[in-house]
Amino acid sequence: MLEFLIGVDGGGSGTRALLARGDGTVIGDGKAGPSALSRGIAAAWQAIETAATRAFESADLAPSPWRHCALGAGLSGASHTPWRDAFLAANVGFARIALDSDSFTMLLGAHAGRPGAIVAAGTGSVGEVLRADGSRASIGGWGFPIGDEGGGAWLGWHAVRHAQAAIEGRVTVGPLARHMWTTCGADRGALLDWCRSAGQFEYAQLAPAVFGAETDDAHAAALLASAVVELETLALALDPEGVLPLAVSGSIGRRLGPRFSPTLRSRCVDLAQGADAGALTLIRRALQALP
Length: 291
Known about the structure:
Elements (H helix, E strand, L loop, with lengths): L3 E7 L4 E7 L4 E7 L8 H18 L10 E7 L5 H9 L6 E6 H9 L5 E6 L3 E6 L5 E5 L11 H16 L7 H10 L3 H10 L2 H5 L2 H7 L4 H21 L7 E4 L1 H6 L5 H4 L9 H14 L3
Helix pairs in contact: 3-12, 4-5, 4-8, 4-9, 5-8
């Protein structure tokens, strides 16, 4: 017997869970560490169980056996079939699971399940669209370092490249290069050592410095302008006719969205709900579709 629904938003920086009763009434929430599937299936399940348990605790309830719960999960990496299959095969006991990408549950939450488009830019970047006829598409989201243009890790990666060029005298030294030197290393050996051990998360942590240097550093300003163009490109590709409402989310998206062209800004709407609520919509629809 299903007593509870759990909606999970899981990515590379953390996991959020919403707890709802069977009728959809939200009664609790919880957080845990990363559950991106790229970090490992076991680690993802551990984070999800932790976040779900904390959601029960926030509702002053003892955690229910998972066999009495249905899980909707929007997870980073879920579009990669081997990871998706491995995750589902490792089910820790949930009665039902509906799994999709975290970008799709962001879309469902942003427009409360209705047709629309979303550009999400945080550590990475991706665009999703749900059309009026029920069809959907995903654009971008190829992952760092080959994709995720306009996202935080992309900004940090370009900032480090600028710092490398500044060490060699190929560009003018300014506030952005100096900040990178202080954070990552001020000579070739130190900067190389930092780059060898850095991953997507570490590069994304450098993105705030790009914003901080914008006023006094032409390279930082140009880099942010390029990021805006990249995110606008996603939005235009999602809905070339410009007929759907557009939501912009993520730590980087929220800062760059106001810089979009007037035409795109005129289509922008506030997010109705978060991705964890979108995951609840995902599992509710999956259950409703059952015979």
